[in-house]
Amino acid sequence: MLSAQENAWCVYTALFLFFSIILTYRCRNNILLIPFAIFGMLMTGGNIYLLAVRYGATKTSVDWASKSFALSLLPAASVLVFLGIMEAQLIFIRNITTAIQNRDHWGSLYLRDPEKRHPVTKKKKVRPWTYYISLAALAVYMLLAVCSIILLGTASFSTVKKIGSAVCITLMLVVVCFNTVVIMAYSRATNHVRLIRRNRDDLLFIQITPILFSICVVGMATLSWIYCFYADPMAIPITLWIVLESLLVYLPLIAILIMCIHTGKIKKMGRQYRIETEQRSFNDQYSYKNVSNVECAANNDKLKREETFRISGPPPPAYQPLKKSFLSLSHS
Question: Is pLDDT of 233 > 80?
Fold first, then answer.
Protein backbone atom coordinates (compact mmCIF):
# COMPACT_ATOMS: atom_id res chain seq x y z
CA MET A 1 0.00 0.00 0.00
CA LEU A 2 1.46 3.33 -1.07
CA SER A 3 1.54 6.28 1.28
CA ALA A 4 0.07 9.70 0.48
CA GLN A 5 3.46 11.08 -0.54
CA GLU A 6 4.13 8.13 -2.82
CA ASN A 7 0.73 8.58 -4.46
CA ALA A 8 1.65 12.20 -5.11
CA TRP A 9 4.94 11.07 -6.64
CA CYS A 10 3.01 8.76 -8.98
CA VAL A 11 0.91 11.70 -10.19
CA TYR A 12 4.01 13.87 -10.68
CA THR A 13 5.72 11.08 -12.62
CA ALA A 14 2.78 10.62 -14.98
CA LEU A 15 2.46 14.36 -15.65
CA PHE A 16 6.14 15.01 -16.27
CA LEU A 17 6.45 11.89 -18.43
CA PHE A 18 3.52 13.00 -20.58
CA PHE A 19 4.83 16.53 -21.12
CA SER A 20 8.42 15.45 -21.62
CA ILE A 21 7.34 13.13 -24.45
CA ILE A 22 5.38 15.91 -26.16
CA LEU A 23 8.18 18.45 -25.74
CA THR A 24 10.76 15.98 -27.03
CA TYR A 25 8.63 15.49 -30.14
CA ARG A 26 8.28 19.24 -30.60
CA CYS A 27 12.02 19.78 -30.26
CA ARG A 28 12.42 18.61 -33.85
CA ASN A 29 11.01 21.91 -35.11
CA ASN A 30 11.65 24.07 -32.05
CA ILE A 31 15.13 23.37 -30.76
CA LEU A 32 14.90 25.99 -28.02
CA LEU A 33 12.43 23.76 -26.14
CA ILE A 34 15.26 21.36 -25.29
CA PRO A 35 15.82 22.76 -21.74
CA PHE A 36 12.16 22.20 -20.90
CA ALA A 37 12.22 18.67 -22.32
CA ILE A 38 15.36 17.81 -20.35
CA PHE A 39 13.75 19.20 -17.20
CA GLY A 40 10.69 17.01 -17.72
CA MET A 41 12.86 13.93 -18.23
CA LEU A 42 14.93 14.74 -15.14
CA MET A 43 11.86 15.14 -12.94
CA THR A 44 10.36 11.95 -14.35
CA GLY A 45 13.50 9.95 -13.61
CA GLY A 46 13.81 11.44 -10.13
CA ASN A 47 10.25 10.60 -9.16
CA ILE A 48 10.62 7.08 -10.54
CA TYR A 49 13.72 6.66 -8.36
CA LEU A 50 11.81 7.81 -5.26
CA LEU A 51 9.04 5.33 -6.02
CA ALA A 52 11.54 2.51 -6.60
CA VAL A 53 13.22 3.02 -3.22
CA ARG A 54 9.91 2.42 -1.39
CA TYR A 55 10.66 4.36 1.78
CA GLY A 56 7.29 3.47 3.27
CA ALA A 57 7.88 -0.28 2.93
CA THR A 58 11.38 -0.28 4.42
CA LYS A 59 10.84 2.09 7.36
CA THR A 60 8.07 2.47 9.90
CA SER A 61 8.47 6.24 10.28
CA VAL A 62 9.70 8.28 7.35
CA ASP A 63 10.70 11.93 7.18
CA TRP A 64 8.73 12.57 3.99
CA ALA A 65 9.50 16.29 3.93
CA SER A 66 13.24 15.66 3.62
CA LYS A 67 12.61 13.46 0.56
CA SER A 68 10.82 16.24 -1.29
CA PHE A 69 12.48 17.46 -4.47
CA ALA A 70 11.50 21.01 -3.53
CA LEU A 71 14.39 20.91 -1.05
CA SER A 72 16.96 18.96 -3.05
CA LEU A 73 16.60 18.47 -6.80
CA LEU A 74 14.30 21.30 -7.86
CA PRO A 75 16.57 24.24 -6.89
CA ALA A 76 19.20 22.81 -9.25
CA ALA A 77 16.85 21.51 -11.94
CA SER A 78 14.97 24.81 -12.05
CA VAL A 79 18.03 26.28 -13.77
CA LEU A 80 16.88 24.49 -16.94
CA VAL A 81 13.44 26.09 -16.75
CA PHE A 82 14.90 29.52 -16.05
CA LEU A 83 17.37 29.05 -18.90
CA GLY A 84 14.55 28.23 -21.33
CA ILE A 85 12.53 31.25 -20.20
CA MET A 86 15.56 33.53 -20.47
CA GLU A 87 16.34 32.26 -23.97
CA ALA A 88 12.88 33.27 -25.13
CA GLN A 89 13.15 36.55 -23.26
CA LEU A 90 16.51 37.49 -24.80
CA ILE A 91 15.34 36.58 -28.30
CA PHE A 92 12.18 38.62 -27.80
CA ILE A 93 14.12 41.68 -26.62
CA ARG A 94 16.59 41.45 -29.49
CA ASN A 95 13.93 41.00 -32.18
CA ILE A 96 11.70 43.75 -30.80
CA THR A 97 14.62 46.19 -30.68
CA THR A 98 15.52 45.39 -34.28
CA ALA A 99 11.89 45.76 -35.36
CA ILE A 100 11.59 49.17 -33.71
CA GLN A 101 14.82 50.32 -35.36
CA ASN A 102 13.59 49.16 -38.76
CA ARG A 103 10.29 50.93 -38.26
CA ASP A 104 11.98 54.19 -37.28
CA HIS A 105 14.57 53.98 -40.06
CA TRP A 106 12.35 53.06 -42.99
CA GLY A 107 9.49 55.21 -41.79
CA SER A 108 11.75 58.24 -41.65
CA LEU A 109 12.63 57.83 -45.34
CA TYR A 110 9.01 58.54 -46.26
CA LEU A 111 7.90 60.81 -43.48
CA ARG A 112 10.85 63.18 -43.40
CA ASP A 113 10.57 66.61 -45.00
CA PRO A 114 13.26 66.60 -47.72
CA GLU A 115 13.49 70.41 -47.76
CA LYS A 116 14.53 70.60 -44.12
CA ARG A 117 17.78 69.44 -42.72
CA HIS A 118 17.61 67.14 -39.78
CA PRO A 119 20.45 66.71 -37.32
CA VAL A 120 22.28 63.43 -37.57
CA THR A 121 21.25 61.21 -34.70
CA LYS A 122 23.24 58.36 -33.32
CA LYS A 123 21.95 54.88 -33.95
CA LYS A 124 20.42 53.13 -31.02
CA LYS A 125 22.13 50.10 -29.64
CA VAL A 126 20.77 46.84 -30.96
CA ARG A 127 20.74 45.35 -27.46
CA PRO A 128 19.15 47.54 -24.77
CA TRP A 129 19.92 47.54 -21.07
CA THR A 130 17.22 44.94 -20.38
CA TYR A 131 19.18 42.43 -22.45
CA TYR A 132 22.26 42.67 -20.24
CA ILE A 133 20.20 42.71 -17.04
CA SER A 134 18.57 39.45 -18.12
CA LEU A 135 21.97 37.87 -18.76
CA ALA A 136 23.20 39.01 -15.35
CA ALA A 137 20.07 37.60 -13.67
CA LEU A 138 20.63 34.25 -15.35
CA ALA A 139 24.27 34.13 -14.23
CA VAL A 140 23.41 35.01 -10.62
CA TYR A 141 20.61 32.44 -10.53
CA MET A 142 22.92 29.69 -11.77
CA LEU A 143 25.55 30.69 -9.20
CA LEU A 144 23.02 30.48 -6.36
CA ALA A 145 21.82 27.09 -7.58
CA VAL A 146 25.41 25.81 -7.54
CA CYS A 147 25.87 27.17 -4.00
CA SER A 148 22.72 25.35 -2.91
CA ILE A 149 24.02 22.07 -4.32
CA ILE A 150 27.39 22.55 -2.62
CA LEU A 151 25.74 23.22 0.75
CA LEU A 152 23.57 20.14 0.51
CA GLY A 153 26.53 17.97 -0.42
CA THR A 154 29.29 19.26 1.85
CA ALA A 155 27.65 20.70 4.98
CA SER A 156 28.15 18.39 7.95
CA PHE A 157 25.41 19.78 10.20
CA SER A 158 21.77 19.45 9.31
CA THR A 159 21.02 22.94 10.62
CA VAL A 160 23.58 24.45 8.26
CA LYS A 161 22.06 22.52 5.37
CA LYS A 162 18.55 23.68 6.17
CA ILE A 163 19.34 27.35 6.71
CA GLY A 164 21.88 27.54 3.89
CA SER A 165 19.51 25.96 1.39
CA ALA A 166 16.65 28.22 2.50
CA VAL A 167 18.81 31.33 2.14
CA CYS A 168 19.99 30.31 -1.34
CA ILE A 169 16.45 29.61 -2.52
CA THR A 170 15.28 32.94 -1.09
CA LEU A 171 18.02 34.79 -2.97
CA MET A 172 17.02 32.89 -6.11
CA LEU A 173 13.48 34.14 -5.53
CA VAL A 174 14.74 37.73 -5.37
CA VAL A 175 16.54 37.30 -8.70
CA VAL A 176 13.50 35.75 -10.36
CA CYS A 177 11.14 38.46 -9.10
CA PHE A 178 13.53 41.17 -10.26
CA ASN A 179 13.71 39.62 -13.72
CA THR A 180 9.91 39.36 -13.84
CA VAL A 181 9.55 43.06 -13.05
CA VAL A 182 12.12 43.95 -15.74
CA ILE A 183 10.46 41.96 -18.52
CA MET A 184 6.98 43.17 -17.56
CA ALA A 185 8.17 46.78 -17.65
CA TYR A 186 9.85 46.24 -21.03
CA SER A 187 6.81 44.56 -22.57
CA ARG A 188 4.57 47.39 -21.35
CA ALA A 189 6.98 49.99 -22.69
CA THR A 190 6.90 48.42 -26.16
CA ASN A 191 3.20 47.51 -26.20
CA HIS A 192 2.27 50.73 -28.05
CA VAL A 193 4.03 49.58 -31.21
CA ARG A 194 1.58 48.25 -33.77
CA LEU A 195 3.72 45.36 -34.98
CA ILE A 196 4.14 44.12 -31.39
CA ARG A 197 0.46 44.24 -30.53
CA ARG A 198 -0.32 41.95 -33.45
CA ASN A 199 1.68 39.08 -31.97
CA ARG A 200 -0.26 38.29 -28.81
CA ASP A 201 1.04 34.74 -28.36
CA ASP A 202 4.61 35.95 -27.95
CA LEU A 203 3.60 38.47 -25.31
CA LEU A 204 1.52 35.85 -23.53
CA PHE A 205 4.48 33.49 -23.22
CA ILE A 206 6.93 36.24 -22.29
CA GLN A 207 4.69 37.71 -19.59
CA ILE A 208 3.06 34.60 -18.10
CA THR A 209 6.00 32.19 -17.80
CA PRO A 210 8.14 34.48 -15.55
CA ILE A 211 5.14 34.94 -13.23
CA LEU A 212 4.53 31.19 -13.06
CA PHE A 213 8.19 30.53 -12.40
CA SER A 214 8.20 33.16 -9.65
CA ILE A 215 5.28 31.36 -7.99
CA CYS A 216 7.22 28.10 -8.22
CA VAL A 217 10.29 29.59 -6.53
CA VAL A 218 8.02 31.17 -3.89
CA GLY A 219 6.72 27.68 -3.15
CA MET A 220 10.23 26.24 -2.87
CA ALA A 221 11.31 29.05 -0.54
CA THR A 222 8.18 28.61 1.60
CA LEU A 223 8.71 24.87 1.95
CA SER A 224 12.40 25.31 2.75
CA TRP A 225 11.67 27.77 5.57
CA ILE A 226 8.87 25.57 6.92
CA TYR A 227 11.36 22.71 7.03
CA CYS A 228 13.81 24.95 8.91
CA PHE A 229 11.33 26.16 11.52
CA TYR A 230 10.28 22.66 12.55
CA ALA A 231 12.79 21.25 15.02
CA ASP A 232 11.36 17.79 14.42
CA PRO A 233 10.68 17.24 10.69
CA MET A 234 8.46 14.30 11.57
CA ALA A 235 5.99 16.75 13.10
CA ILE A 236 5.28 18.43 9.76
CA PRO A 237 1.74 17.50 8.60
CA ILE A 238 2.27 15.46 5.46
CA THR A 239 -1.11 16.48 4.01
CA LEU A 240 -0.30 20.17 4.34
CA TRP A 241 3.12 19.56 2.82
CA ILE A 242 1.69 17.75 -0.21
CA VAL A 243 -0.93 20.46 -0.80
CA LEU A 244 1.62 23.27 -0.65
CA GLU A 245 4.08 21.36 -2.80
CA SER A 246 1.45 20.55 -5.42
CA LEU A 247 -0.14 24.00 -5.64
CA LEU A 248 2.89 26.26 -5.24
CA VAL A 249 5.65 24.21 -6.89
CA TYR A 250 4.44 21.56 -9.31
CA LEU A 251 1.31 23.25 -10.64
CA PRO A 252 3.20 26.34 -11.94
CA LEU A 253 5.83 24.06 -13.50
CA ILE A 254 3.15 22.06 -15.30
CA ALA A 255 1.58 25.33 -16.48
CA ILE A 256 4.95 26.45 -17.88
CA LEU A 257 5.27 23.19 -19.83
CA ILE A 258 1.75 23.70 -21.18
CA MET A 259 2.74 27.20 -22.30
CA CYS A 260 5.74 25.70 -24.09
CA ILE A 261 3.42 23.40 -26.02
CA HIS A 262 1.01 26.23 -26.81
CA THR A 263 3.55 28.72 -28.08
CA GLY A 264 5.09 28.75 -31.54
CA LYS A 265 8.78 28.80 -32.38
CA ILE A 266 10.71 30.63 -29.69
CA LYS A 267 13.31 31.87 -32.17
CA LYS A 268 10.58 33.89 -33.94
CA MET A 269 9.34 35.68 -30.82
CA GLY A 270 9.06 39.40 -31.40
CA ARG A 271 10.06 39.13 -35.04
CA GLN A 272 8.91 41.99 -37.22
CA TYR A 273 5.78 41.57 -39.30
CA ARG A 274 4.83 43.49 -42.41
CA ILE A 275 2.87 46.62 -41.64
CA GLU A 276 -0.14 46.67 -43.94
CA THR A 277 -1.69 49.91 -42.76
CA GLU A 278 -0.25 53.18 -43.90
CA GLN A 279 2.16 55.05 -41.68
CA ARG A 280 1.20 58.45 -40.44
CA SER A 281 3.26 61.57 -40.17
CA PHE A 282 3.04 64.67 -38.07
CA ASN A 283 3.44 66.59 -41.32
CA ASP A 284 0.34 65.74 -43.35
CA GLN A 285 1.92 67.17 -46.47
CA TYR A 286 4.31 64.23 -46.65
CA SER A 287 2.09 61.43 -45.45
CA TYR A 288 1.54 58.39 -47.62
CA LYS A 289 -2.07 59.25 -48.28
CA ASN A 290 -1.48 62.80 -49.46
CA VAL A 291 1.57 61.89 -51.53
CA SER A 292 -0.34 59.16 -53.34
CA ASN A 293 -3.26 61.54 -54.01
CA VAL A 294 -0.94 64.18 -55.43
CA GLU A 295 0.74 61.65 -57.70
CA CYS A 296 -2.60 60.34 -58.95
CA ALA A 297 -3.86 63.87 -59.66
CA ALA A 298 -0.68 64.72 -61.58
CA ASN A 299 -1.00 61.57 -63.69
CA ASN A 300 -4.64 62.34 -64.47
CA ASP A 301 -3.79 65.89 -65.58
CA LYS A 302 -1.04 64.57 -67.79
CA LEU A 303 -3.37 62.09 -69.45
CA LYS A 304 -5.99 64.78 -70.03
CA ARG A 305 -3.44 67.07 -71.68
CA GLU A 306 -2.24 64.27 -73.94
CA GLU A 307 -5.82 63.48 -74.86
CA THR A 308 -6.56 67.12 -75.68
CA PHE A 309 -3.49 67.88 -77.77
CA ARG A 310 -3.17 64.53 -79.45
CA ILE A 311 -3.00 64.80 -83.26
CA SER A 312 -5.29 62.25 -84.79
CA GLY A 313 -4.36 60.59 -88.07
CA PRO A 314 -6.42 60.79 -91.25
CA PRO A 315 -9.50 58.63 -91.41
CA PRO A 316 -9.28 55.41 -93.42
CA PRO A 317 -10.19 55.74 -97.11
CA ALA A 318 -13.86 55.35 -97.92
CA TYR A 319 -15.00 52.23 -99.73
CA GLN A 320 -15.34 52.82 -103.44
CA PRO A 321 -16.90 50.12 -105.67
CA LEU A 322 -15.04 48.99 -108.74
CA LYS A 323 -15.97 50.42 -112.12
CA LYS A 324 -18.35 48.51 -114.38
CA SER A 325 -15.85 48.35 -117.21
CA PHE A 326 -13.37 46.61 -114.98
CA LEU A 327 -16.05 44.18 -113.84
CA SER A 328 -17.09 43.37 -117.41
CA LEU A 329 -13.51 42.71 -118.44
CA SER A 330 -13.03 40.39 -115.54
CA HIS A 331 -16.14 38.36 -116.48
CA SER A 332 -15.06 38.06 -120.08
Answer: no
